[in-house]
Amino acid sequence: MKVKKTIVTVLYHVFIAGLGLIMIYPVLWMISGSLKNNPEILSGSLNLIPPEWRWENFSTGWRGFGHVTFTTYFKNSIIITVIATLGTVLSSAVIAYSLARCKYRGRKLIFMVMIGTMLLPGQVVMIPQYLIYNRIGWVGTILPLTVPHFFGAAFFIYLMMQFMAGIPRELDEAAIIDGCSKYSVFTRVVFPLLKPALISTIIIQFYWKWDDYMGPMLYLGKPEKYTVSIAVKLFADATSKTDYGPMFAMSTLSMIPVFLIFLFFNRYLVEGISTSGLKG
Amino acid sequence: MSRAKTDRIESGRSPWNRFIYNDNTVGYIFASPFIIGFLAFTIIPMLSSLYYSCTNFDLINKEKWVGFANYINLFKDERFLNSLKVTFEYVALSVPLKLAFALFIAFLLTRPSKVVSFYRSLYYLPSLIGGSVAVALVWKELFARNGLINLNLRKLGIDTVNWFGNMSTAKWPIILMTAWQFGSSMLIFAAGLKEIPTSYYEAAEIDGANGWQKFWKITMPCLSPVILFNLIMQLISSFMVFTQAFVITGGGPNDATMYYALYLYKQGIQSRNMGYASAMSWVMLIVMGTVTAIVFKTSKHWVFNEADS
Lengths: 280, 309
What we know:
The complex is a heterodimer.
Chain A: H1 2-33, H2 38-41, H3 56-62, H4 70-101, H5 107-118, H6 122-135, H7 143-146, H8 154-164, H9 169-177, H10 182-193, H11 195-211, H12 214-219, H13 228-237, H14 244-272
Chain B: H1 3-10, H2 15-20, H3 23-52, H4 69-74, H5 78-108, H6 116-129, H7 133-142, H8 148-155, H9 171-180, H10 183-194, H11 198-206, H12 211-239, H13 243-248, H14 260-270, H15 274-302
């Protein structure tokens, strides 16, 4: 019996780890490709160790396109992502508090509209929004990519409401008895306790925004304003033969911020997702 | 004196304080970002696009009223009808594959083990970076005519596939890439599995239930609200597939991967047929609304509600 159990455990780990390796193989292949030249990448070898470590791919890639280097692209991406993420976290928390913890006329209606916007795919409003931004002169600036994030995002509002359902209401009541107003209950009780959900939101919003390709493509006209995701695509668009080494080198670098955020906050991710309110 | 105390003393004093600490006021102040944002970035754009959908607006010239011509032309437009067809096909193939995989892995990772959180991060990784252009470019290379996959198929003596050259095979790399990003659904499933009381399983064991029975009679019903949530979220995001197709196939070959959002982009942004694209947006809104409503309607039959039992 004991032997059987050990065998099952070993098989389990071999299976999970093996499958996991297959899952991340494309990513590892890309990283190793950043240190190879074209013939080595296109040889079809599954070997991940580069025969020769060609670090020059990074300096070649960093030079970018025209006179714009990846310093500019990274700066643009970081500005847009940080502003958008901050906006999403703060506004969504405030709105979630209103919907989960306040009693007022019209709350149900606002909640239903909010769920409705969650079911509304972004691309449906893409053209309508483009027309509005075009009219008010926002096309060509980072405003369409940042300002709307300060008005909450339904998915995160919902995530935070689920999480708030797990914060005992007695805490609010105790704070009110101690003299807190509804405003200070939010800033002193609910918001601090929301930390895991806030961090889940930061991770998810950060990488959504960092990876976003459609938004920057629609609204950022000039190469000096391009984000990293637009710039990486330019390698493949080059009219001459694609230089895979530098392309993979910059692709690898483009993923580092997302990796870092994930590494720092990973342990909160599962904690911050609560499904308790989905039931019944 | 603490701030909390001042709050209490001040409330109920002046009319201003009575107003500002009123429950309705508090609720609307906290909800105001949503209300303003919804009006400014959803309602106003959507309504104005309803107007534009009945015009021939091209961003440059003054628009002319054309009535329902755009809508009528849409249903005569072979490329549009094809985009609907390939989008539905893509959704029908990729969503079940992705969710089944997410549930399978989430289920495997419920085992209490120290390395499980490491595995979970490993499987989450594709979701984390999968939406990026970088990964789409890697994918394009992997499935290229002389890419890694074909070269290794050849080494094994298997016929190679011209993935992006055939109308019937071009969709598979994109579907696989979507299914590969099952991480966020997996995390939501994992959270749902964690909340199923272990006492249910213990009771079933006493009654002599085997693993398979436990899965279908306890896990699946308890998880059904979470499945519904994941299903809806994935349906919506899959209907709007854009970046992968744009980077990997560009809609080809012969429109085999010309998904709805891609065609919308081509018509609206590239060709500046804003009137036509606005009409497309409204048609898509109606299609999506119908699909979501159908899923919700049928969910009454398969989503287990604890309050009912």
